[in-house]
TrEMBL record:
InterPro entries: HAD-like_sf (IPR036412), HAD-SF_hydro_IA (IPR006439), HAD-SF_hydro_IA_YjjG/PynA (IPR011951), HAD_2 (IPR041492), HAD_sf (IPR023214), PGP-like_dom2 (IPR023198), Pyrimidine_5'-ntase_YjjG (IPR052550)
Protein name: Putative hydrolase of the HAD superfamily
GO function terms (MF aspect): 5'-nucleotidase activity
Alphabetical UniProt keywords: Hydrolase
SUPFAM superfamilies (alphabetical): HAD-like (SSF56784)
Protein species of origin: Olleya namhaensis
Gene3D superfamilies reported for this sequence: HAD superfamily/HAD-like, Putative phosphatase, domain 2
Top-rank taxon: Bacteria
UniProt keyword annotation of Ribonucleoprotein present: no
Length: 230
């Protein structure tokens, strides 16, 4: 596999790319359910929550729901689907505590530190994330990832979300980088990969979601496979 030439800057997504969102999220729900005496089956809850959460993040990317709507409605809709009654006040407390405690858990994907150690000696590394600024900052610190990255661009700091071209341009400007000497690595085909490619920024898809691979798109199934390209 030919190496990608002229790359100086590598931009990473965070959740589902480096930071193991699903594992950390499950541990957070386990903790806050105990805290608030919510006796729902965690396994059943997560089976409903994960697709509902992805749906709300897409709505959030498309500017169709607010941050507050996302945080509350993904829980309310999950409990409704589970047919498990939870008072509104408790849902609001769960919503707040989920954000508060999520970054207390710091699992990352296999190969994360190794690939970042490898890339850090060759490139300037950056983050572009649709996650909330404060939460993402805490995740980077708790998982000891923060020192790898020179800039962190969040949707809140850019004023728009991936795949909007403005967030990529904002990140490039912050990093003093250009599309021709940069590459984006992320898990979300629409937000990370197509968003980057649409502005002429090369991209590698970390195929966490096992989507069907597309011709002319760089895919990796393990983070260390990035070495094939960089």
């Amino acid at each position: 596999m030919p190496k990608t030439n002229k790359v100086e800057h590598v931009f990473f997504d965070l959740d589902h790319t480096l930071w193991d969102f699903d594992k950390n999220s499950a541990l957070t729900f386990e903790f806050i359910f105990k805290k608030h005496d919510v006796n729902a089956s965690l396994t059943d809850f997560l089976s409903f929550y994960e697709p509902i959460n992805l749906k709300y993040w897409k709505l959030y990317r498309d500017e169709k729901v607010t941050k507050e709507d996302l945080r509350y409605n993904r829980l309310k809709e999950t409990f409704d689907a589970l047919q498990f009654t939870v008072e509104d006040q408790i849902i609001h407390h769960l919503s707040e505590d989920y954000i508060t405690f999520l970054s207390s858990f710091n699992h990352v994907y296999d190969g994360t530190y190794q690939i970042l150690d490898y890339l850090k000696t060759k490139y300037k590394l950056h983050i572009i994330t649709n996650g909330f600024k404060e939460a993402q900052t805490n995740k980077l610190k708790s998982s000891k990832l923060d020192h790898y990255f020179e800039t962190v661009t969040s949707a809140e700091s850019a004023g728009v979300k991936k795949p909007n071209p403005q967030i990529f341009n904002h990140a490039l400007n912050s990093a003093k980088a250009e599309t021709k000497n940069s590459i984006m690595i992320g898990d979300n085909y629409e937000a990370d990969i197509l968003g980057a490619l649409n502005i002429g920024l090369d991209a590698i898809c970390f195929n966490y979601h096992n989507v069907q691979e597309q011709p002319d798109i760089k895919f990796v199934n393990h983070l260390l496979d990035i070495k094939k390209y960089l």
